[in-house]
Amino acid sequence: MCDVAGAGALKGCGGMKSKYYEEIPEWQDGVPYDPDASPLAWAHYRKVYTEERWPLLGEFDMVHVDTYNELLHTWYKQDGRLYAPWSRCDEDGYPELILGGDTEFNFNSAKYYLYKYKLKLDKRTLEMFYANHLVYHSPVNFSLMPATGNLQGVKGGSANVFDRLDVFVKWLHAFYIGENDFVLSKARGKNRKRLENYLNSFAGESDERTYDYCAKVYFMEDRMLVRRVLEDGAKPMESAADAVRYMELAQACWAARAERWEKRYSD
Fold it and tell me: Per residue in 27-59, pLDDT tens?
């Protein structure tokens, strides 16, 4: 178990000194972005998400990323986020699906108060939260997620008020084993089928797709870690002990990922 005595808590958890734990700023070249979908985030994604690991990415233009409005020729959003378009286009010539960034474990300032007052965290546990908060906008806590079909709306919606990654993976698993299609519940019109096709592009049958998704998207290549995520996703978040369990899960995922990246991308 990691020492959780304060802001330096993650130093013993597998790589706090790693560059992948360094914060990505909101302001870049004088423009405000959501850090997980910013130019610096995309530079990181291009490095670690390779066609060798995930062949489907060869169909996405991860170099010429742009805003939602520019890619889909709409005035629907102005949110400081950049997306990669799929080469598969609809009858109007627009990409059928676009990929954006996602902040996996949500330890932002707003969640601090939810954890503090709903779970009645003591000082030591709040210090652990703060240590995790320092990693919130770091590459080690970022991953790719399609904007098409609003998976982010599912993950961070009212059914998952803590925006827990383990709960989302549990829902994804339920989709893959044919239990329910809750992960598609925010998709509308043609986007529902497009998102379904994307999710079904991962390799394997039934629960094997869960493992393939976690390996390719979250770099969880240890099946034991995926099983831990699934098991924790079935547990409630009702107490300080539950919060500690979830924060330790985040640290384990970050450490495993940082270690792999340091070995593969030493430059």
Answer: 999 999 999 999 999 999 999 999 999 999 999
Which token pair is 236?
Answer: 């409630």
Q: Please report where in the chains the tokens 């792999």 appear, as a residue.
A: 260
What local confidence, expressed as pLDDT, does residue 155 receive? Answer: 97
User: Strands, E, within the chain: which ranges?
Assistant: 27-28, 31-32, 84-85, 98-103, 142-146
Beta strands in 69-218 (DSSP E): 84-85, 98-103, 142-146
Is 111 strand, coil or helix? Answer: helix
Torsion of CA 65, 67, 70, 76, to 10 degrees: 150
Question: Phi first, then psi: what are they for 33, rounded to 5°?
Answer: -130, 160
pLDDT on residue 1: 34
SS (H, E, C) 52-73: CCCHHHHHECCCCCECHHHHHC
CA distance 205 to 114: 38
User: Which two tokens mark 157?
Assistant: 């919606």
Residue 183: its pLDDT value, please? 98
pTM exceeds 0.90 = yes
Nearest-angstrom CA–CA distance, 36 and 248: 22
Give the HSE-up count for residue 215: Cα atoms under 13 Å, Cβ half-sphere.
17
Residues of the chain with pLDDT under 50: 1-15
Alpha-carbon gap, residue 50 to 143, rounded angstroms:
13
